[in-house]
Amino acid sequence: MSLNTFGRLLRVTTWGESHGEAIGCVIDGVPPGLTLTKEDIQPFLDKRRPGQSKYVTQRKEPDNVKILSGVFDDLTTGTPISLQIQNQDARSTDYEKNREVFRPGHADYTYFKKYGIRDHRGGGRASARETAARVAAGAVARKILGSNVSIKGALIKLGKKQIEHTRWDWDAIYKNPFYCPDPDTVHEWKIYLDNIRKTGSSVGAVIEIHSSGIPTGLGAPHYGKLDADLAAAIMSIHAVKGIEIGAGFAVGTFSGEENADEMRIGESGDVEFSSNNAGGILGGISTGQDIILRFVVKPTSSIHNVTNSIDTSGKSVKISTTGRHDPCVGIRAVPVGEAMVACVLADHLLLHRAQCGGNHDVNKKNS
Amino acid sequence: MSLNTFGRLLRVTTWGESHGEAIGCVIDGVPPGLTLTKEDIQPFLDKRRPGQSKYVTQRKEPDNVKILSGVFDDLTTGTPISLQIQNQDARSTDYEKNREVFRPGHADYTYFKKYGIRDHRGGGRASARETAARVAAGAVARKILGSNVSIKGALIKLGKKQIEHTRWDWDAIYKNPFYCPDPDTVHEWKIYLDNIRKTGSSVGAVIEIHSSGIPTGLGAPHYGKLDADLAAAIMSIHAVKGIEIGAGFAVGTFSGEENADEMRIGESGDVEFSSNNAGGILGGISTGQDIILRFVVKPTSSIHNVTNSIDTSGKSVKISTTGRHDPCVGIRAVPVGEAMVACVLADHLLLHRAQCGGNHDVNKKNS
Amino acid sequence: MSLNTFGRLLRVTTWGESHGEAIGCVIDGVPPGLTLTKEDIQPFLDKRRPGQSKYVTQRKEPDNVKILSGVFDDLTTGTPISLQIQNQDARSTDYEKNREVFRPGHADYTYFKKYGIRDHRGGGRASARETAARVAAGAVARKILGSNVSIKGALIKLGKKQIEHTRWDWDAIYKNPFYCPDPDTVHEWKIYLDNIRKTGSSVGAVIEIHSSGIPTGLGAPHYGKLDADLAAAIMSIHAVKGIEIGAGFAVGTFSGEENADEMRIGESGDVEFSSNNAGGILGGISTGQDIILRFVVKPTSSIHNVTNSIDTSGKSVKISTTGRHDPCVGIRAVPVGEAMVACVLADHLLLHRAQCGGNHDVNKKNS
Amino acid sequence: MSLNTFGRLLRVTTWGESHGEAIGCVIDGVPPGLTLTKEDIQPFLDKRRPGQSKYVTQRKEPDNVKILSGVFDDLTTGTPISLQIQNQDARSTDYEKNREVFRPGHADYTYFKKYGIRDHRGGGRASARETAARVAAGAVARKILGSNVSIKGALIKLGKKQIEHTRWDWDAIYKNPFYCPDPDTVHEWKIYLDNIRKTGSSVGAVIEIHSSGIPTGLGAPHYGKLDADLAAAIMSIHAVKGIEIGAGFAVGTFSGEENADEMRIGESGDVEFSSNNAGGILGGISTGQDIILRFVVKPTSSIHNVTNSIDTSGKSVKISTTGRHDPCVGIRAVPVGEAMVACVLADHLLLHRAQCGGNHDVNKKNS
Questions:
Q1: DSSP letters along A27-67, please?
Q2: What's the pLDDT tens digit per position in D298-349?
Q3: Which of B305, B294, B309, B197 is nearest to B251 (CA)?
Q4: Tell me: the pLDDT tens digits for B205-237?
Q5: What gap in Å lies between CA C4 and CA B350, rounded to an integer?
Q6: D window 104-163, beta carbon within 8 A of A
Q7: Which of D113, D227, D278 has its CB closest to that of C235?
Q8: What is this structure's pTM?
């Protein structure tokens, strides 16, 4: 019931506010004997780190992760892994003038209505800074999944601009500030987002994540469906308003024939699918094909332009936000989405091993 | 960890296979003292019931619900409510010829790969028949929410055909076999789906659900987000491949100004929003506006037309499904989606009361 | 948070009232491919069944179990197993006169104060009849544990009478109506309990349970301790007021030297312990020795003799209970305790496999 | 499934090893608006702190707690509270010689067998140092319970010496180094334990905890029984081997008449009980009487005297432990036990409010 925890057997509990002393997470349920050092985690945090280009917030945070427990002699011990990241470049004064007002489209209003109190500094607990802890946890989840599993995300739409899928190039993703897989689109996106940034506005985005090397059989019927857990994990990311698996919303227009991913036994003797509309999941259980999902991130709600709002005393006010913000928070959502997918898949790997990892009488009976 | 259970405080555990003796659910955590009789539940089951028009499966199931526990003198007692529905019109012989083969696009293959065994009769546990238990649970959840809360769904896209939103009429939805809110579209849909049905094919659909009367403050930060729990609940429904909240995937193209639902204090002294792109949820917590979500249902994977597949022995085969099936399983997903939303909202009502229902020092301190 | 569910991966949800139509449970998380038929479960129910001797309640219930789901071709499918037992010999009229009064020492009072309503018939949900569902679940748990694991309980104290441990004979326990392991004590117990029964009184008891064949390594640090889960499971049984592991309360008087179970490598090359004060659990994790625990059951609170109490309107009254009851409810607690232990051990078997069942880098690194 | 987390709605996750950089916990589910500062927590840590008398370990740890999140302007915000305590006086070299051997009666052996790896320094995760985090969490739980609830523990048996209950004096408890409630016993205990300490041995103890001011109605039937949750919480404390509620194991010898706590309406109009054998809990639900429980703590397994054991390579060895240890770890278990009871009670306060805190139709129907 921990509302700040996710996962079933691999349990990640995050804590911390944007302008508190630190943020962090506790990861429980990690198998013992996995090699794990700071160097396994830091590269993923560096991908999410703010201040790396003019297209993201200018807050400067080194985001150095500390492993406080659960690792001995560079090996996981099976006990909870506590990770911590100091907050360094918090400028709470930027937020002082908005202490009593609610930013439209932001969690300010709902936190205050729910709890009767809020830490207004930098968004408090609602800040996207919390996602650093998720990314750290995702790095640990990747260790559980092993090197045969690959989880990679890309930005496929930036506001009204989208990539050309036929030009998809995984190698391009880390060579531009957008995680854009279409190198020919990058220049246009730079001009487009720079304009938005200069006007003090912001814009939404769509991210696509591919997971390959996933064994057949992960997931479970109904409420433990792999896609249900993925949907919750992705929707729990700040600013996400939609998630789809495989062909997603397009299947609404498909006929049964168009939708069915036909199967046959290939020359190698393995199962081959004619397509992957299912996105690698049927009946909530992985098929062995790539797991493909997309999610949409709304534009940053902190914008410089003046909008109408109300304050804590119940009066109408005008508001403009002047803190440092991402013109497109969707960019940094790419490593965050990857991390959440990694955690869900590692969790289901453990779940599957628990229920189906033993010897079955079924085999004895059938043999 | 119950993979066949959902909810946090209001816990629903479903059980049963399509062609077993019965299906049912156990609902735990229901507040005591609520009036509850079979008559509170049956009307919702009747909405989902098969065989009511030629546009849905012709299996004839009265779906009479029995309350086996947790109710005394027509009042809930606070103890678990066990509901049960007999299976009557199962025709397992229809499935005998497909015992050793996997229907493409269906859970047949993944269940077999996961468990090494499957109940092939009518899809076994993967059958949409399981959703009758969800609908029954949803009726109980509505009692918890009370009569001020309304949860209503409609089919807004049937395959390639969609409604005209400006003609939306809530009164129309129960007057046609599609839960279509646009009466002028119904005739066209009848012809369209009848053609699909006759060709032995099937088609996808999109459903929209509106919940009104929801108090501000339901939900929680991060992994207890109201939208994260809704996403998991909806994605756990059979054949769902995508879910979006409020403006959903459209926010990807919005600017921050377009997305922000501005607030002001209205003449009545209450908060008024200029729009509802957020779909009634900000930072995972309800705003008090209507909660609006949409989800897509893929076409029924059981189709008469011959497709390529494989069998349990690992050989390529041709397959055609001849059981009774819905040409558009999305139609009966309307009451199912409503039920899942009701369960999630009732769960969060209890969660909110637990954490925030007491007297706060904050008030004393501030006064 | 299901308060009527227990277990972590092997999840058992029970439902039903003493005088309702039926009682039952849903068992989720069972591995697929285990042979399971009614005949695997019924013998354990028969051990718990009422009406088998004059030393237990005279209510006549055949307690025939029905398997409603989760099993196909006599094999578990990995989906939830729904078990159901009809109530047949309920005599609600026996309880009518106590509808408005609370039996001292019984849950009548607290249920009413908590919920504002209670099903007074036969104790409603608080009735020990609920334990039939636990016993059924325990039979399924034994299938998961396999035939190398043995879980056996015995009554070691009946009121003021106790067994002589040196005469312990496992073969004796099913040859007397008390599950007494000391055959020389049985005659004395018969006279003793018969007297108590005739006077309309009741008496407490202590049960000891031994589990052998348990692998080393089940359990977890701290809140997943095997003994913590066993303690909760046993304390959740009706009328239990205490639980101890191994030497239990006696260790309070031990010195460190007396308490330590010394280890050495025996001639066979296996670890040998000099004693088993730990009861097979150290640091919450199984040592491989027998797991030994004891628990105390209070005397049945329903007695014929008149006692002082109050009624639902808040007035003092005199009360005497005339329904059919066990003079020593501890006797039938033996199979119930065994069942709870079986469920906890099977649950931890799955948990251990999940976290520690894979290949560890630790081995590669050390080799 | 977080095995390092306990609680249902009030969720406490602890982390950290004895000789790591720090230990700590994350407390989730705390209601918002409660005043909370370091000064609310530190006094309880000071009661558990080592090095305060010669009767406890001489490790010097200030145990200064830091609040890293979840509190703003000295008020809880409803978001997770992260507490951290640095480890300062760890002397890992004391343990170096025991790196490859297992202390009998200690978790050394079972951790190694379970995980294939262990942090041997100071017991690693199995160290009683973990309990500092529990005590900190207990202080927060007391804030939730409010000032009307009192939870106090005392040492009633020290090895073979026990108090005289008729001399019980709550005021005496904090005036001696044993939390002994019988001032006339203290001198004898000092001599007794000093002798044990000087010989390098250790001794067990029994602790009794009283909770008063508890509302009627906390707890739930069966697997959410208040006593079941208390049993798990207490048994999860290091070295605990038994737990009993109210009259505990003594009820095994009681008749139904002796056991029944008779009720009547007193002159004030309130319910009065003739006794409290139930220890304040009937059917798993609080009666409103004081909740009374006792638990036994085994002697510290780290003793100086030489015992037989084995090492990680599977050879028999002789072992003597020379680190700093408590001659009676039961003494410091008093504040730990109080903390666990506080957490369970606060958790059930929230659970009760969730399910039963609303308006019931039962009232309307009955009125």
A1: EE-PPTT-B--HHHHHHHHHHH-SSSSTTS--------EEE
A2: 998 877 888 899 999 999 999 887 766 789 999 999 999 999 999 999 999 9
A3: B294
A4: 999 999 999 999 999 999 999 999 999 999 999
A5: 17
A6: 114-119, 124-125
A7: D227
A8: 0.96
The secondary structure element, H or E, covering residue B133 is helix B131-145
At residue D30, does pLDDT exceed 90? yes
How far is C117 from chain B, CA to nearest CA, in Å?
Answer: 6
Residue D250 is encoded by which pair of tokens?
Answer: 């003594």
Which one of C1, C31, C362 has the shortest CB-CB distance to A358?
A: C31
Position A353 scores a pLDDT of 95
pLDDT one-digit tens code per residue, A223-279 = 999 999 999 999 999 999 999 999 999 999 999 999 999 999 999 999 999 999 999
Residues of C in contact with B70 (CB under 8 A): 15, 17
Q: How far apart are CA A270 and CA A265, in angstroms?
A: 6
Q: Is B366's pLDDT higher than 50?
A: no
**Beta D161-162 vs D240-245: how paired, if at all?**
unpaired
Which residue of A149, A218, A353 is the best one to mutate when testing the C interface, meaning the one whose CB has the most C CBs within 10 A?
A353
**Chain B CB within 8 Å of residue A308 CB:** yes
Q: Mean per-residue pLDDT for C127-137?
A: 95
**Dist CA C128 CA D303 (whole Å):** 45
Are C365 and A79 in contact (CB < 8 Å)?
Answer: no
Of A6, A252, A356, the CB nearest to B115: A356
Say how far apart CA B225 and CA B221 lie, in whole Å.
5
**Residue D248's closest CA among C110, C344, C206, C307?**
C206
What is the number of other CB atoms lying within 10 angstroms of the CB of residue A245?
28
- Helix (H) or strand (E) run with residue A132 in it: helix A131-145
Judge: A35–C361 Cβ closer than 8 Å, yes or no: yes
Of A105, A202, A235, the CB nearest to B282: A105
Instruction: Report the relative pairing of strands D285-286 and D291-297 from DSSP bridges.
Output: unpaired
* Facing C117 at nearest CB: one of B14, B32, B81: B32
**Type and span of the H or E element at D365:** helix D361-366
Beta-strand (E) ranges in D246-354?
A: 263-265, 271-273, 281-282, 285-286, 291-297, 307-310, 316-319
B353 touches chain C (CB under 8 A): no
User: Do D241 and C241 lie within an 8 Å CB cutoff?
Assistant: no
Q: Which chains touch B (3 or more CB pairs under 8 A)?
A: A, C, D
pLDDT of B284-336, one tens digit each?
Answer: 999 999 999 999 999 988 778 888 999 999 999 998 877 667 899 999 999 99
Per-residue H/E/C for B238-267: CCEEEEEECCHHHHHHCEHHHHCCCEEECC
Contact A355/C31, CB-based, under 8 Å? yes
Residue C166 has φ and ψ, to the nearest 5°, of: -65, -20
SS3 D339: helix
Within 10 A of C267 (CB to CB), how many other CB atoms are there?
Answer: 6
Half-sphere exposure of C17 (CA within 13 A, CB side): 26
Q: Are B102 and B108 in contact (CB under 8 A)?
A: yes
| Contact state of D355 with B350 under an 8 Å Cβ cutoff | yes
Decide if A117 and D69 are in contact by the 8 Å CB cutoff. Answer: no
